[in-house]
Design goal:
241 residues, Rossmann fold, DNA polymerase, domain 1, six-stranded parallel beta sheet, 6 strands
């Protein structure tokens, strides 16, 4: 007779795209800046281009081409290039820095706060994001995200999907990997977590890249759970509302 799997004790969450709507938030910040500074910019294209620079920038760190560099600093490197590409002129250093910190002010998906509060009643809930600690802390404060703790790639000087991030999260939580569940909207993140022994929950965000994007949001048999959103995940893992 096979034994049941050990219980999950902690849920760790990817943040950009899984918990917060980075694209809608960056577009809104850009449009506000455009109104204030009389800028004519395609802000959806700007947001997409900023995000498109994210993985290549991290790859330079992961390969050793760059020393350890926080996401805030990588975002700024990308932004400096985009200001020229999109012909955004006349901003002070303070205004550019404020724009760069738009990533600290990302707004959550509609189900995120309520779902996290419900999941928090039965589990430790924590971030496991490539965002740096200051960014994630400010975002939690800004958006009212009820984390028990904030875990960041910055703690390990390794970006996901390096194994050190997933194993390091379990170690810092004082738990074996199989008692930690990674929650993400990105299948590559979950496959990397699964390879390190973590349990996995897929929560698709079909609008992460906008209404015209085609994303792979179908169920994946390799993952432990598939949920429509965080409240559905809470229905599966904790007592009903």
């Amino acid at each position: 007779m096979s034994s049941s799997p050990p219980p999950v004790r902690a849920l760790v969450f990817d943040v950009f795209g899984t918990v917060v709507d980075w694209r809608g938030s960056i577009i809104a910040e850009g449009r506000k800046l455009g109104r204030d500074k009389h800028l004519r910019v395609n802000w959806p294209a700007f947001a997409d281009a900023w995000r498109a620079g994210y993985r290549p920038a991290m790859a330079r760190v992961r390969s050793g081409e760059l020393p350890w560099t926080t996401i805030d600093a990588l975002h700024r490197k990308i932004l400096d290039d985009l200001l020229g590409q999109f012909r955004i002129e006349g901003l002070s250093e303070q205004e550019v820095d404020h724009l760069n910190r738009a990533w600290h002010r990302l707004k959550p998906w509609r189900d995120a706060r309520s779902g996290l509060r419900r999941l928090k009643t039965g589990y430790i809930i924590a971030t496991l994001s490539n965002g740096n600690l200051a960014l994630l802390t400010n975002m939690a404060k800004f958006s009212g995200l009820p984390w028990d703790c904030i875990l960041s790639a910055e703690l390990f000087h390794h970006y996901k999907p390096d194994p050190e991030t997933y194993r390091g999260a379990a170690r810092l939580l004082g738990l074996p990997e199989h008692e930690v569940m990674m929650v993400a909207a990105h299948k590559d993140d979950l496959f990397a977590a699964k390879a390190c022994g973590l349990r996995t929950a897929f929560v698709p965000r079909p609008l992460e890249h906008g209404p015209k994007a085609r994303l792979d949001v179908g169920p994946e048999p390799a993952f432990d759970l598939h949920a429509r959103d965080f409240n559905d995940l809470a229905d599966q893992l904790v007592a009903p509302r």
